Amino acid sequence: MENKLLADYEQQFGVTSAEITSKISRLGHIAGNDRNEYIKEIERNLDEVHDLLEQMDLSVKESDVSVRAKLHNRVASYRAELHRLAKEFARAKCTVNIDLEDDNHFAESEDITSEQKQRLLYTSERLNQSGIQLDNTYRIAVETEEIGSQILTDLNRQRETMHNSFNRLRDANADLGRSTRMINAIIVRSRQHKIILFGVMAAFCFLLVFALYHTFL
Questions:
Q1: Helix, strand, coil % over all residues of the chain, rounded to 5
Q2: CA–CA distance from 115 to each of 66, 84, 111, 121 (Å)?
Q3: Whole-angstrom Cα distance, residue 32 to residue 91?
Q4: What end-to-end distance do the CA atoms of the chain give, in Å?
Q5: Three-class SS of residue 98?
Q6: Secondary structure of 130-198 in HEC code, one letter for each residue
């Protein structure tokens, strides 16, 4: 069953990403110091989306194994959307000649050379590729975990089958032992009955001889 927490994160992601898209489209119409503040707002929104993706990853890891792969694919699509927004944001900054001060914060406006623009776009593309590689690595790890879980389940099922077979074999051996004891008891009783029968016949013969002896004397 898909968890409710992930659905809440997805809703927040949709609202925030739509807000980022809207702000990026208006970035070229903002001038001066207002533009710098506007850029910082977009940057904060991107950080919020990144935090949401991390929370989604944790939520997926806590989900049932049966739905984990499907949920991971959804989170991967959101991560790709974040990379697209970041790349679009970088291009918008190049268009309005805003120099990037560090990875997440921007300084005052200044002219950017063509070489700097290309380097910024190249860095953004590398980040996008790195994110895709991380997604693929995580997907492989999830699939490997699912395969390992399935193998453990199969091994447990086989162990249970072997345990049941051993119990049936032990019960059959016990039944065989009881049958052997019963047969031995029947043989002993049969021998006892034969001895008693021979004794009775001997006594009868003795009495018969004794009676005939006294009759003819």
A1: 90, 0, 10
A2: 49, 22, 12, 10
A3: 18
A4: 109
A5: coil
A6: HHHHHHHHHHHHHHHHHHHHHHHHHHHHHHHHHHHHHHHHHHHHHHHHHHHHHHHHHHHHHHHHHHHHH
Measured distance CA(184)–CA(107) in Å, rounded: 102
Tokens linked to 26: 């208006």
- State what percent of residues in the chain have pLDDT above 90: 3
Nearest alpha carbon to residue 67 among 6, 158, 9, 120? 6
Rounded to whole angstroms, how far apart are CA atoms 9 and 75?
10
**41: its two tokens:** 């707002």
CA torsion, ordered 84, 90, 95, 99, to nearest 10 deg: 180
pLDDT score for 7: 84
Neighbours of 60 (CB within 10 A): 23
Round to whole Å and give the CA distance between 88 and 106: 16
Tell me the pLDDT tens digit for each residue of 158-168: 888 888 887 88
10-residue mean pLDDT profile of the chain (217 residues): values are: 75 90 84 79 90 88 82 87 88 65 41 61 66 66 70 79 82 82 85 85 82 74
pLDDT of residue 109: 39
Here the tokens at position 139 are 């997907």
User: What tens digit of pLDDT does each residue of 94-145 get?
Assistant: 776 544 443 344 444 344 456 666 666 666 666 666 666 666 666 676 667 6
